[in-house]
């Protein structure tokens, strides 16, 4: 039975490249930096929410901050999903891998049913 890393490598799309033992993806440096910056802001939001709870801030104010963080995280997911479809999914379909449609369907269902 393959371990999780071996399974991920086996699913590597034709558009991905490898450099030594390190897997490289379609993401360019600008995309990687953009995603990282967004996640850093979200991380700060979550720390702020924790602090608000510890300080006993009014529940509605905390809930508003949680909604804001969820929205920001959804934005990251949408951006990543769009790139995934335009690159990985497209390349796998061109290569004749029809199974990627089922994988994408499951992924989108998880994103939609997050609440």
Total E-strand runs: 2
Percent of residues in beta strands?
Answer: 5-15%
Order of helices and strands: HEEHHH
Poorly predicted ranges (pLDDT <50, ≥5 residues)? 17-24
Shape designation: elongated
The structure class reads mainly alpha
Under the CATH scheme, the architecture is: Up-down Bundle
Q: Main β-sheet, in a few words?
A: 2 strands, antiparallel
Number of domains: 1
Overall helicity: over 70%
In angstroms, what is the radius of gyration? 18 Å
Name given to the CATH homologous superfamily:
Metal-sensitive repressor, helix protomer
Task: Give me the side-by-side strand order of the main sheet.
Answer: 1-2
Please report the distance between the alpha carbons of the first and last residues.
33 Å
